[in-house]
Amino acid sequence: MIEVTNLTKRYGDHKAVDHLSFKVEKGQIYGFLGPNGAGKSTTMNIITGYLAASEGSVTIDGYDVQQEPEEAKKRIGYLPELPPLYMDMTVEEYLRFAAELKKVPKAEREEQVEQVMDMTQITEMRSRLIKNLSKGYKQRVGLAQALLGSPEVLILDEPSVGLDPKQIIEIRDLIRELGKSHTIILSSHILSEVSAVCDHIMIISHGKLVASDSPEGLQRLMSGSNKLKLTVKGSYEALQGAVKDVPGIQEMEELTSPEEGCCCVQIMTDKQQDIREQLFYLMAEKRLPILSMTQSERSLEDIFLELTGEVPAPVETVRRGRRKKQKEPAAEQNSNEDKEEA
Question: What CA–CA distance (Å, rounded) separates 192 from 33?
Answer without folding.
Answer: 11
